[in-house]
Inverse folding.
């Protein structure tokens, strides 16, 4: 699959079926826009290294199950590989390759001294006990002991992984190394060298990018409505920051379903989260204390929610949510991609014709990896920054990245995604040339 699906000639065969091909189509569009050096294209069209594992786990019941796991190290021309680990029943090599590729572009967009990687274990964490989850995480760490490390490849949380899981990786990796090595992962607990502000970095950073866009189009945040898909780490912190600036969240969905505020007043995200924990949003109700108010909210599937009227649609769940099948029905004039790859290549073309602005993932959710970089620097140099310091440094980095991309978008008349890729590809090309690779 690796060789067969990455050549230019194989686009037609795999198109529409593969997330990685959708990512490569994005690369190809940008490569054409900037007349990319042929050698750089050759290097970037396939991952440097794919690690595929079968991890046995003795369940609490005594039954042995084997789980598929991956780590894709896409490119490290600009520095150590960097990218999260995802636990998901649909995790696949194709998905992890695409995510590792986007990390390579994203780290270059944010001008961080990192390459790109991603990891995944194909499992539904809700079906494992905590003890089983810990055991599997430790066995994944042991299998990757020679491949990850503070100066080689630095994982982080992604979908269904969190600080606690990163803590188990730090412990296992440190035990194997014979010394405490907190910089092997980012997004870990504060008690193990985690950073203030990292947890909220992706969502908060995503909101700062939206603020920059609103400034450019001269729209008041207080007059802006948002529909948000995904209420995990990224979606939650985005909503918190948005509310602080007066933006109204009028629709939200999790994996089970969504609610839409018919009145356009806006929701209190903490109350929604409390409902989600107690009943799930699929109930279509919004509970405050003991009184359940279903009158003001419309219950919708998460697919329907994407098509509801709003100023900004924020997919913050998984990739492939806006496709050629529903792109025509999207009503929001702006899409802020907080998830990785929520809009497929074909959907991009339809949205472009409808003049919908797509703020690409490699910029919109880059706050996460910038926050991770801050954590890593603190670990390596023994610094301890306050949350304000971390967030303000992150804001500066994102502001610089946004300006470079907006400039390329305006001057070269490129879509924001293509502009972001062009900025990143120039940096990658410089590093590849500096190393003598091309
Ligand atoms: P998470 O596991 O904390 O949350 C995922 C959320 O998506 C959950 O609320 C889940 O219910 C919801 N969801 C899943 N399937 C859905 C569906 N079909 N419809 C609606 N909602 C659905 O994950 P996260 O860390 O918030 O990551 C979300 C996205 O952001 C992913 O694409 C991830 O790769 C990307 N991302 C995360 C970070 C980070 O720092 N965590 C950084 C950059 C990008």
């Amino acid at each position: 699959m690796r060789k067969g699906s990455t050549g230019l000639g194989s686009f037609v065969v795999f198109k529409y079926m593969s997330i990685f091909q959708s990512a490569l189509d994005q690369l190809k569009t940008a490569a054409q826009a900037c007349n990319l050096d042929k050698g750089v294209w050759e290097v970037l069209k396939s991952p440097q290294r794919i690690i595929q594992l079968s991890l046995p786990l003795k369940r609490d019941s005594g039954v042995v199950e084997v789980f598929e796991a991956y780590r894709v190290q896409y490119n490290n021309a600009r520095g150590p590989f960097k990218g999260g680990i995802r636990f998901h029943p649909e995790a696949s090599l194709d998905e992890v390759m695409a995510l590792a590729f986007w990390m390579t572009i994203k780290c270059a967009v944010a001008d961080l001294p990192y390459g790109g990687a991603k990891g995944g274990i194909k499992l539904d964490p809700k079906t494992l006990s905590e003890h089983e989850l810990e055991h599997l995480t430790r066995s994944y760490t042991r299998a990757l002991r020679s491949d990850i490390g503070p100066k080689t490849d630095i994982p982080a949380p992604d979908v269904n992984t969190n600080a606690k899981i990163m803590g188990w990786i730090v412990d296992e990796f440190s035990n194997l190394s014979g010394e405490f090595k907190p910089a092997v992962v980012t997004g870990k607990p504060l008690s193990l060298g985690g950073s203030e502000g990292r947890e909220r970095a992706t969502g908060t950073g995503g909101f700062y990018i939206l603020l920059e866009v609103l400034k450019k189009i001269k729209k008041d945040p207080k007059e802006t409505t948002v529909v948000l898909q995904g209420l995990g780490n990224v979606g939650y912190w985005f909503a918190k920051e948005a509310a602080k600036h007066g933006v109204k969240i009028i629709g939200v969905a999790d994996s089970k379903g969504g609610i839409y505020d018919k009145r356009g007043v806006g929701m209190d995200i903490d109350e929604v989260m409390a409902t989600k924990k107690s009943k799930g949003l699929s109930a279509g109700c919004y509970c405050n204390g003991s009184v359940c108010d279903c009158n003001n909210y419309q219950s919708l599937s998460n697919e329907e929610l994407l098509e509801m009227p709003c100023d900004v649609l924020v997919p913050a769940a998984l990739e492939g949510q806006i496709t050629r099948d529903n792109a025509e029905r999207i009503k929001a004039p702006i899409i802020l991609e907080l998830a990785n790859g929520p809009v497929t290549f074909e959907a991009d073309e339809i949205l472009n014709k409808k003049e919908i602005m797509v703020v690409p993932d490699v910029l919109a959710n880059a706050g996460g990896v910038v926050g991770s970089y801050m954590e890593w620097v603190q670990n390596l140099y023994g610094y301890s920054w306050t949350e304000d310091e971390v967030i303000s440094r992150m804001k500066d980095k994102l502001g610089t990245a946004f300006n470079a991309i907006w400039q390329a978008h305006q001057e070269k008349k490129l879509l924001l995604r293509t502009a972001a890729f062009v900025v990143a590809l120039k940096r990658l090309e410089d590093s590849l040339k500096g190393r003598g690779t091309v």
